[in-house]
From TrEMBL:
The gene is nboR. One of its GO terms (molecular function) is nucleotidyltransferase activity. Residues 19-188 form the MobA-like NTP transferase domain. InterPro entries: MobA-like_NTP_Trfase (IPR025877), Nucleotide-diphossugar_trans (IPR029044). This is Nicotine blue oxidoreductase. Pfam families: NTP_transf_3 (PF12804).
Length: 207
């Protein structure tokens, strides 16, 4: 499993890094919820994101749903390996990405025991792969204080790796359609170049 033992934990488990897929938005510019989007071959974007996180050693994978949550949950349930994913509902999803992120942080904090860190990706980065996530995770040991972010030829992207000590202050700081980017910059997150692996581009509009 990705990561190392967390010296702050009580010894019940080795370091556990959970994955998070943010997929609650309505996708206004995209023309519909991205949680329902598919690749040209019909593979759901949700499947790509979940597989990338799971193959990188993240467990469990929390999938945050909001707009069209019932349809997205049905799509998720039909995916091979869907047992690796746990649905988290962001009832306030209309407040923007911050609502999705807060829902994920609350769910992770409520786990027993909670994971040491979260690898967070949005659903709309369809070329994201496990190798990119592994590079961010494996660059250095992971503990509760870890704060790390992939960059693609210098451009900040995903995954973001959020150690447990950052969850509460991050949840308190985000507003509206804002993710973790400002927090990561303000707290000098470690940047991990991954532009040789993927583009890391998020898609706001249909290709």
């Amino acid at each position: 499993m990705a990561g190392s033992r967390d010296a702050h934990d009580d010894g019940r488990s080795a370091t556990r890094i959970a994955g998070v897929v943010l997929a609650a938005g309505a996708g206004t510019r995209f023309g519909g919820p991205k949680a329902l989007a598919t690749h040209p071959d019909g593979t759901p974007w949700l499947a790509t994101a979940i597989r990338a996180l799971a193959d990188a050693g993240c467990s469990p994978v929390l999938v945050v749903l909001g707009a069209s949550a019932d349809a997205a949950a049905a799509l998720l349930a039909a995916l091979p390996g869907s047992g690796r994913a746990l649905v988290v509902r962001a009832d306030d999803w209309a407040d923007g990405m911050s609502a999705s992120l807060r829902a994920a942080l609350r769910a992770a904090a409520a786990a027993d025991p909670p994971p040491v860190a979260l690898a967070v990706v949005p659903v709309d980065v369809p070329d994201l792969d496990a190798a990119t996530i592994r590079r961010v995770v494996d660059t250095a040991p992971v503990d509760r204080s870890t704060l790390r972010q992939a960059v693609f030829r210098g451009r900040p992207g995903h995954p973001a790796l959020l150690g447990r000590d950052h969850w509460a202050p991050l949840a308190a700081s985000v507003r509206g359609d804002e993710g973790a980017r400002r927090y990561l910059a303000a707290h000098d997150a470690q940047l991990v170049e991954a532009g040789d692996l993927t583009t890391g581009e998020d898609l706001d509009r249909r290709p």
